[in-house]
Specification:
By secondary structure, this protein is α/β, with parallel strands linked by helices. Helices cover 29% and strands 25% of the residues. Helix 5 packs across helix 6 and helix 8 runs parallel beside helix 9. The structure holds ligand LLP. Homodimer.
């Protein structure tokens, strides 16, 4: 087969139907990943819940899929909450995150029935207390802790980042005050503790250290609380990435937590994790059309019809991706090229250096593993139009987000 297929559809058919740039999600891959998480993340000792960190990719269709598999949801803003409500996501399964939720966002969430909040700081707990009284509603609060562990892809650092903008140190006065407010409150209920130690992690050891920390804090409580370990499971962007097998690694998180609790003679209500990238990342492919091809003294450029506006990650994090000329899979990769976008910014490069076949203008270029933080971090810089999103499965494609039009660009302008 010399042409790339996604969801049993040749990509040239998708391009003919939806144009480029195009975000394509392989629905079966999404489902298989969710199933692997669910399969592994189970315990005989406590409840388990997987919250999808929807900042990675949030659309109504995606949330419907998340609900279909009975996952919960992590939202971080009024906008993500609104989208979840429009998707009719069960409100009791939504956990509201964020270090600076505004009073309006909190009111909007409470008025719409959300009742799980992950509080970042003491002031937030105070405000939640006031709002819970005003609305006369019970609110479950998880405290976001900074456990002093910073996980990187292959290593982790202890006592790192104690000045992070996220969470509180358990030992801090602020945290103890926050806990007291909850204890004295008639409407706030302490649900437990949350921590998130990093992203694109390939090592179990960082999580195990996190579990040790979180479990140790439980000693101070008679109530049976819940723990949330955050997200951060790494994915394969390039062949240099060796992600942990999902089912096995989440199983290990459960069994390690069971052991740690047993040693301490304690139990928990529920263990939670919040994967984002790992659920959607590898299921997404971006299709571009090659436009002009240009040679400079030391480089050869293949220009594509999108770039940093649909995928900011290379420019922002020097993130690396792999790609193919999607209808020339069998051709020799004889050309050393830079794949660059069309935006007015030198840093607008999709892939710094890769080998591809000889391209012609009009060829389709597929960039793999773009499903996380691509669409969700897209922008209209240069008044680029946000691409369409399609889901494909079993030879059928479904439009999930239509491509923006020029009139969309002026929608909010007062003319
Ligand atoms: N939970 C919390 C509290 C988080 O802050 C995050 C991500 C997640 C869960 C999900 O993490 P994941 O499983 O997706 O790694 N824009 C960056 C990633 C920022 C992640 C922020 N927090 C990127 O494109 O790499």
């Amino acid at each position: 087969m010399s042409e790339l297929m996604i969801g049993e559809i040749p990509v040239s058919q998708l391009v003919a139907k939806y144009q480029t740039p195009l975000y394509v999600y392989d629905e079966k891959k999404l489902e298989d990943t969710i199933k692997a998480f669910k399969q592994g993340f189970q315990s005989d000792h406590f409840k388990t819940k997987i919250l999808y960190a929807s900042k990675a990719f949030q659309t109504v269709e995606m949330l419907k899929l998340i609900e279909k598999y009975d996952l919960g949801l992590d939202v971080v803003s009024g906008g993500e909450t609104y989208t979840a409500l429009r998707a009719e996501f069960p409100v009791e399964e939504i956990y509201f995150h964020g270090n600076n939720k505004t009073p309006d966002e909190l009111r909007f969430a409470i008025e719409n029935g959300l009742n799980h909040f992950i509080a970042d700081n003491e002031m937030e707990v105070e405000l939640l207390d006031a709002l819970s009284q005003e609305y006369n509603k019970k609110i479950h609060v998880m405290i976001r802790l900074n456990v002093g562990i910073e996980a990187h892809t292959h290593e982790y650092i202890v006592t790192a980042h104690i000045d992070s903008k996220f969470g509180m140190l358990y030992e801090s006065e602020a945290c103890q005050k926050a806990l007291n407010i909850i204890q004295d409150s008639e409407q706030l209920l302490l649900e437990g503790f949350h921590a998130h130690i990093g992203s694109q992690i390939f090592e179990m050891s960082a999580w195990l250290a996190e579990i040790d920390k979180l479990v140790s804090y439980l000693q101070d409580f008679d109530d049976v609380l819940s723990l949330n370990l955050g997200g951060g499971f790494g994915i394969r962007y390039t062949e240099n990435d060796a992600p942990l097998p999902i089912e096995k690694s989440v199983q290990e998180l459960v069994s390690y937590t069971e052991e740690a609790l047993k040693k301490q003679g304690q139990t928990i209500q529920q263990l939670m994790i919040e994967p984002g990238r790992s659920i959607v990342g590898e299921a997404g492919t971006t299709l571009y059309t090659v436009g002009f091809i240009k040679e400079t003294p030391h480089k050869k450029y293949y220009f594509v019809d999108g770039g940093m506006t649909d995928n900011i990650r290379p420019a922002l994090y020097q993130a690396e991706y792999t790609c193919d000329l999607a209808t020339k899979l069998q051709s020799e990769k004889s050309e050393k090229v830079t794949v660059a976008g069309k935006m007015c910014e030198s840093g607008d490069v999709v892939i710094q250096e890769t080998y591809l076949p000889v391209a012609e203008s009009g060829d389709i270029l597929a960039v793999y593993a773009t499903g996380a933080y691509g669409y969700s971090m897209s922008s209209n810089y240069n008044r680029a139009l946000t691409p369409a999103v399609v889901f494909v499965k079993d030879g059928v494609s479904k439009i999930v987000v239509r491509r923006q039009s020029y009139t969309d660009l002026l929608r909010s302008e007062v003319l």
